[in-house]
Fold:
Amino acid sequence: MAYIRFVIQRQNPETEEWVDYCYCHAIQVNKDVGKESFSAGSDQRHIRLWFDVRWSHVIEKVAYNSQEFQIVYRGRTFNIIDHDDYMEQHRVIRLLGESYG
Structure:
């Protein structure tokens, strides 16, 4: 099984700079079907991807404080807008990232 590598960054509250928080390996990355949109009158695209990662205490912090974190994947930045820990089983967490560009 090939894992997909990405970086989670955390915003420093004092400097407001993004710094690497952890390197992750996703089990899979999937497009959020039906959620790609275009803004009227502009070329701005919204792309949403689900990142499935194994549960850990590090990822749990990201899931419950998502406004402090972002995902960098293939040179693109994704704001973490949602998460899913299916039935709180702590096996796999799905992070929903949204990118504008």
